[in-house]
Design goal:
The complex is a heterodimer of chains A (319) and B (336). With 319 residues, chain A is mainly alpha-helical. Chain A has one domain (11-249). Chain A has 13 helices and 4 strands. By secondary structure, chain B is mostly helical. Chain B has a single domain (31-334), classed as ABC transporter involved in vitamin B12 uptake, BtuC, CATH 1.10.3470. Chain B has 12 helices and 4 strands. Chain B has helices at residues 10-14, 32-68, 75-92, 100-127, 135-157, 183-205, 207-217, 219-224, 229-255, 262-277, 282-302, 308-322, and strands at residues 162-163, 173-176, 179-182, 257-258. In chain B, the strands form 2 sheets. Chain B has a two-stranded antiparallel sheet. In chain B, strands 2-3 form a two-stranded antiparallel ribbon. In chain B, strand 2 and strand 3 (179-182) form a beta hairpin. The radius of gyration of chain B is 20 Å and the shape is globular. Chain B starts with 9 loop residues before the first helix and ends in a 14-residue tail after the last helix. The chains are: A mainly alpha (319), B mainly alpha (336). At the A-B interface, helix 3, helix 6, helix 11 and helix 13 of A face helix 1, helix 5, helix 10 and helix 12 of B.
């Protein structure tokens, strides 16, 4: 809170800041041309989890609501795509709207009761929802979710009759979606909804006095965050071609939660950095897979003790 | 395919705890009424045993939350670390010729001492630096500590299920109205009652207990009254984990197994018990533990076990929505 309010910064610095993001994204498009397929798949995983983490940021970082069950919305998206594709034979792109809308609806629906809870109570309730979701998927209601084994054999998407079957094509799809979501997140900072969220997070009483509809903004935040997570879920189902309850357990929610807080809540570069550390680094050091959560544990404590605001905190801006 | 990486904690999947083992005492009874009665008494005793364990673990959550307003996510893992330390002593000294009771006592003492020290280290390293920081930072630090302890157990003892030795305690079973009550059950129930009574007197009838209660009500004012808040918090991080270690070891002895993700399973149940009773309230944790234990036993006995956990979580959410302060919670427990 003691950071000085930013003065009119030097224009060239400003330009570098605004241009470096899109530039990095454009450079990223060349990943399949430079690296081999295992790196391309790691980059694709990064893009998918980045979308997922950014969607958690809408609720947790920007909304200030302690959502520790975000894997539920990610899971709903993945399961909707998996079921519609493998049981009903719908093409992947046709399942996408359903996945996004159903996740968003679940988010908005759960937001109703969840909104009455604050802080730690919200945290515990979302943990409860996550556990119920995983149990429900394991119990295979109506023979649709395939129980603990999940659903396998999900097809690949095709665009205008052109199958996106190769690893590179799927990477480009993920990367383009990430780009769109990043653009959306940047604009979120400036639109009415984003401003209302910032007011609410800083001082709910003052914001509601000034006419901000807290209920509406919070429901919208849950719906938007959940919908984007559903989008990431669809990409996840396509990338792995299989969906099972193990991918949406509480540990995954904790990881998404930690990505946002460790990276820097409300900060796009922070969340991307957090995603890279929590999801990409373990893929690179796969030989040490059993140490993954051990190292995470130490890293989470260390980052919080040394940098409680996150690795790359949000720049202070006038609300 | 190389790119299809298995994400998530496989071990969680592999070792799903089988709650049906709760009702393994069920036997055939001659009359229907006798059978109904026997099942009922059986479930009451099963519930009280598990409830006592939940209560012992829940006390650690509720005391820390009471004085620091922090969910100590690492508590459940600390408790199970206690079970593993006790188990190591028990299996290591198996052939030493001492009687089972002596070995068990040593195991409890060792587990309590080690876990109390671990609790203090946890507070000093992971929580004290964050006391003035944002709440979320402390939550993430607690989650980090949980992952660290859980995976330390896995790296030291391996991911397999460890079996507790069977011949430590006399295999006495009493039959009451068609229900079988084991020596272990009676021991756990009695020990829980004694420990909780002792804690209740410590908190409510000693000067230090008064200091703990004052700190829980208002840390700043307590400081002004000359209470050494840091000392109170350290004490809480000795008592909570110590009781938790006993609870963890009871879990191992009762179910005769230990595995590294157990801390999460039992920690969550104990935590639900703490919320049920009203988080921050010490009698609440005791009552909540027993009620949840009974609820679980009856749900396992009478309702399908595959949805039993889902029912428990639905109960948790319902309590949070209807009465977030729990059955015996202080009104200010909901303050954020």
């Amino acid at each position: 809170m003691s950071e000085p309010v930013e003065k009119q910064s030097v224009p060239s610095v400003w330009r570098i800041r605004t241009l470096s993001g899109p530039l990095l994204w454009a450079v990223g498009l060349a990943i399949p041309a430079v690296f081999d397929s295992s790196w391309v798949s790691i980059a694709a995983i990064f893009a998918i989890y980045a979308v997922s983490a950014l969607s958690e940021d809408v609720i947790l970082g920007r909304g200030g609501m302690f959502d520790m069950g975000h894997a539920v919305y990610f899971g709903i998206g993945a399961y909707v795509t998996a079921i519609l594709n493998s049981s009903f034979g719908l093409p992947i792109f046709a399942t996408l709207p359903a996945a996004v809308l159903l996740s968003a609806a679940a988010g908005a629906l759960l937001a109703g009761p969840l909104m009455r809870l604050r802080g730690d109570y919200l945290l515990v309730a979302t943990i409860g929802f996550n556990s119920i979701f995983v149990l429900a998927m394991q119990n295979d209601p109506g023979g649709m979710t395939g129980g603990s084994d999940g659903i396998t054999g999900i097809g690949f998407p095709s665009l205008f009759g052109l199958p996106l079957a190769s690893q590179s094509a799927m990477f480009w799809l993920d990367w383009v979606v990430l780009g769109i979501v990043l653009l959306l997140m940047r604009n979120l900072d400036r639109c009415e909804f984003g401003r209302a969220q910032r007011y609410l997070k800083q001082d709910e009483l003052a914001a509601t006095t000034l006419g901000v509809d807290a209920r509406k903004v919070k429901t919208q935040a849950f719906a938007l965050g959940a919908g984007l997570a559903g989008l990431a879920g669809t990409l996840f189902a396509v990338q792995l071609s299989t969906v099972s309850p193990a991918s949406f357990v509480f540990t995954e929610s904790v990881t998404l939660f930690a990505v946002v807080i460790v990276g820097g809540p409300g900060s796009i570069p922070g969340v991307l950095l957090g995603t890279a550390l929590m999801f990409v680094v373990p893929q690179i050091f796969r030989d040490f897979a059993q140490y993954r959560y051990f190292v995470f544990g130490i890293a989470m404590i260390a980052v919080m003790v040394l940098r409680p605001q996150g690795l790359w905190p949000q720049r202070r801006r006038r609300a | 395919m190389d790119c299809r990486v298995k994400l998530g904690n496989d071990a969680n999947e592999a070792i799903q705890f089988d709650r049906e083992s709760l009702s393994f005492f069920d036997k055939k009874h001659p009359t229907l009424a006798g059978k109904v009665m026997g099942t009922f008494i059986q479930q009451v005793f099963n519930g009280l045993t598990v409830g006592g364990i939940y209560a012992l673990i829940a006390l650690g959550y509720t005391m820390v939350y009471g004085v620091m307003r922090l969910i100590n996510f690492a508590h459940g893992d600390l408790c199970i670390l206690g079970a593993f330390i006790g188990l190591t002593l028990l299996t290591g000294a198996a052939g030493s010729g001492h009687s089972g009771a002596v070995l068990l006592l040593c195991a409890f003492v060792l587990a309590v001492v080690v876990i109390a020290i671990a609790g203090v280290v946890l507070e000093l390293v992971a929580y004290r630096p964050l006391r003035k920081a944002d709440r979320l930072s402390a939550v993430v630090s607690a989650l980090g500590a949980s992952l660290l302890i859980e995976n330390s157990i896995m790296l030291i003892w391996g991911p397999d299920v460890h079996v507790f030795p069977a011949d430590l305690l006399p295999a006495i079973t009493w039959t009451v109205a068609g229900a079988n009550i084991t020596f272990v059950q009676v021991m756990i129930i009695l020990a829980s009652v004694v420990l909780m009574t002792a804690l209740y007197f410590f908190i409510h009838h000693t000067r230090f207990g008064t200091a703990i209660r004052a700190t829980a009500i208002d840390q700043e004012t307590a400081k002004l009254m000359g209470i050494k808040v840091n000392q109170v918090i350290l004490t809480v991080f000795v008592i909570g984990p110590a009781l938790g270690a006993i609870g963890g070891l009871f879990v191992g002895i009762y179910y005769r197994e230990a595995y590294f993700t157990m801390g999460w399973t039992y920690g969550l149940y104990a935590f639900i018990a703490a919320i049920l009773g009203g988080i921050g309230s010490i009698p609440g944790a005791m009552v909540g533990g027993v009620l949840l234990g009974l609820f679980n036993a009856f749900a396992a006995g009478y309702i399908s076990s595959s949805w039993q956990d889902a029912i428990t979580f639905a109960l948790l959410i319902a309590i949070l929505l209807v009465r977030p302060t729990g059955l015996m919670g202080e009104p200010d427990a909901g303050k954020v």
